Amino acid sequence: MAISIAIASGKGGTGKTTIAANLAVALAKFRRDVIVLDADIAMANLELVLGVEGKGKTLNDVLAGRASIEEAIYEGPAGVKVVPAGISLDAFRKARPEKLEEVLKKLHDMAEIIIIDCPAGIGREALTAISASEHLILVVNPEISSISDALKVIAIARRLDTNVLGAIINRTMKEDSELSSKAIATILEVPVLGVVPEDPNVRKCAAFGVPIVIRYPDSPASQAIMEIAAKLIGKEYKPKKVEKESFIKKFIRGIFGGRK
């Protein structure tokens, strides 16, 4: 039987989908059998991050009764299995979000870990995804508005008997205006599972449809996500130290492109 982990956020723009996608791939790199499912059926983006867009059958088709869940599973990077939500408006209009729990029950026999990318906020689809999951991880930014919204999600998750594993602080820039990890843990009353720094490579990867843990495995964000994945499965992982580029190296790379 798989364990299911909902990846949620109190507001949009925290980088939740990027974290969900890369965390799933990171767990697959640790040789775990992982399914990642896009429960954001209205604003589906997971398939773009993982490079599996344009598939024939999707979660919306399953929720609409037009396909089986087996038909909507595709192989993604590092062997992770992906269930995209799809972008068909017709399938979305006919989808029944309340069937998500039934879908997850079927997936439980197909993997060790199910990562669920929830819609942001506390709308009906988000609550359905959270209630259908055993565990929850919040993705927050180090700012008071993000933390305030996250508190609402935590309160609702507890009412739904979904276990809150902790929070991932994403897109940190080490500025004085940012809330510290300790302050965030104190306010949310949950552990901080890891801190992922702002990384320009994330945007590049989104353009290519390749997760950052695959395209730039040594980047600061990749290393942070790999460390979080290892923590979740009880593995030891020492992040690689990334040497800072000298001014000369940056100058030369700027002239000659430095593309990978």
UniProtKB/TrEMBL annotation:
Q: What is this protein called?
A: Septum site-determining protein MinD
* GO annotation terms (biological process): negative regulation of cell division
What Gene3D superfamilies does the record point to? P-loop containing nucleotide triphosphate hydrolases (3.40.50.300)
Q: Name one GO cellular component term.
A: cytosol
SUPFAM superfamilies xrefs: P-loop containing nucleoside triphosphate hydrolases
A Pfam family the protein falls into:
ParA
Q: Where does ATP bind?
A: 11-18
Record's keyword terms, sorted? ATP-binding, Nucleotide-binding
| Alphabetized GO MF terms | ATP binding; ATP hydrolysis activity
